[in-house]
Write a structure and sequence with these properties.
Layout lengths: L22 H6 L3 E5 L6 H12 L2 E4 H9 L4 H11 L7 H15 L6 E4 L5 H10 L5 E6 L2 H12 L5 H19 L6 E5 L4 H40 L2
Parallel strand pairs: 1-3, 1-4, 2-3, 4-5
Helix pairs in contact: 2-9, 3-4, 3-5, 5-6, 7-8
Length: 237
């Protein structure tokens, strides 16, 4: 799947990064969904429902980073330091490599991939598309700010205040805009104010349309190609 970690800097030549054979992912052509949304929008709740009902592998980037930070490796120590010092940034290449490893590990036993809380910037998005595969949809959960603030206040049990939450929401929404700006045709904006089950129904419907459209296009493309091949063969007979 990969080699040893030889470098952890985004500025180094690509050949110094880990190498992965992503054929198992590309060959299966499983649906890939990015799920984004600011704190308090209900993103994690919907990710759980989607992964359970659609049998998609739920890849939570934050969990991948925390798990790796506990390891006594160069990569783990770098992530651990970045998580404890907000001024330091985890290289985008490391985030992508962790996602690759998880997708390869789970590719045998799932019907698709749900990447939760990704991408955080346009570079992450571009590297993912280039090195892993194209995506079927970006589900962007929207919610009224007062609703999100109220939800986060309850979840934090007093550890956060209104202003802290509002700043986190504003920062996240800026990241989403920057990270998904080139993929507007893939974007599905869904409001998360309603009952979670109602929100889920809308998300599932949006994903189903995206997947069925992709299959239809692929089938039509294959048919057109086969017709072209038949015409070419006939011309030689």
């Amino acid at each position: 799947m990969g080699g040893s970690l030889s470098c952890i800097d985004d500025q180094v030549p690509p050949m110094q990064r880990l190498r992965y054979d992503m054929t198992p992912i590309k060959s299966k052509s499983l649906p890939i969904i990015w799920l984004v949304g600011p704190p308090g929008c209900g993103r994690n709740t919907q990710a759980k429902l989607l992964s359970e009902n659609l049998e998609f592998s739920h890849i939570k980037v934050a969990d991948l980073l925390r798990d790796e930070a506990d390891k006594d490796t160069d990569r783990g120590r770098l992530i651990n330091e970045a998580l404890h010092h907000r001024a330091k940034k985890i290289p985008d290449s490391i985030v992508i490599d962790l996602i690759k490893e998880e997708m390869l590990r789970k590719s045998q036993n799932c019907k698709g991939f749900l990447i939760n809380n990704f991408p955080k910037n346009s570079k992450q998005a571009a590297i993912f598309i280039k090195e892993i595969d194209d995506i079927d949809a970006i589900i962007y959960l929207l919610c009224d700010v007062p609703v999100m603030v109220k939800r986060k206040l309850i979840q934090s049990e007093g550890r956060l205040d209104d202003e802290m939450i509002k700043k986190a929401i504003a920062s996240y929404m800026k990241e989403i805009k920057e990270g998904t700006s080139k993929y507007g045709s893939k974007l599905e904006k869904i409001r998360g104010n309603e009952d979670p089950n109602e929100v889920y129904t809308k998300i599932e419907a949006a994903i189903s349309v995206r997947i069925s459209t992709r299959s239809k296009i692929t089938a039509e493309s294959d048919y057109a190609q086969s017709q072209e091949n038949e015409s070419t063969i006939s011309s030689f007979n």
